[in-house]
Write a structure and sequence with these properties.
single chain; about 200 residues; six-stranded parallel β-sheet; 5 helices; Rossmann fold; two-stranded antiparallel ribbon
Length: about 200
């Protein structure tokens, strides 16, 4: 039975590595995965899913205006697909998540989405919010803060290396731009430390 999956985390947790490994496992079993990534993320080159550990694969891209149900239906018309693997799922729109859910329900193809949960301000991305609401199964991919606690937040660094508190929600970048932190250290970095009771 096909399901919509959401694998979420903060930056540098290994989401793309897990996606590429899962797609490899499908191929080893003679199955056909279809890889998609966001058109606006060109850090590893256009139409490429890459991991910080050095593995990468080509992928088709999606843009915010795409009808994802129509894209899936058109791909299935070209040949069988056992599973869809979608990286950078936070860049999906709410409508696109519904379209992927429809593809799961009506076309019977599983869709595994991998993406960030929150932005540098601590706000949900629209695609992530919709996936948290609609996914049949969710899995948190964990990474750690410099203190050793689980990192659940991310700060965006400015050119001076200091955390930014404002800016556009989407700015594609890597380790030079973002740092994953636990909530406490994110609050420290953002200047959001309330006075402790006496």
């Amino acid at each position: 039975m096909a399901k919509l999956y959401f694998h979420y985390s903060t930056m540098n947790a290994g989401k793309s590595t897990l996606l590429l490994q899962a797609a490899h496992n499908y191929r080893e079993r003679g199955m056909v995965p279809w890889l998609l990534t966001a058109q606006l993320d060109t850090r590893a080159g256009a139409g490429r899913i890459a991991s910080r550990i050095g593995i990468a694969e080509p992928a088709e891209t999606f843009a915010q205006g795409d009808n994802m149900f129509a894209r899936v239906a058109a791909r299935l018309d070209r040949g069988h697909v056992d599973c869809i693997f979608l990286d950078e799922a936070q860049f999906l729109t709410r409508a696109q998540v519904w379209q992927l859910a429809q593809a799961v329900d009506d076309l019977g193809v599983p869709v595994m989405c991998y993406g960030l949960r929150v932005d540098f301000r601590g706000d949900l991305f629209p695609g992530s919010a919709a996936l948290l609401a609609l996914a049949d199964e969710m899995r948190e991919v964990r990474t750690i803060c410099h203190c050793g606690k689980k990192a659940t937040m991310v700060v965006r660094l400015g050119p001076d290396g200091q955390p930014l508190k404002q800016g556009a929600q989407v700015l594609v970048g890597g380790n030079e731009t973002y740092v994953s932190l636990c909530r406490r250290h994110w609050r420290d970095a953002m200047g959001d430390r309330p006075a402790l009771p006496e």
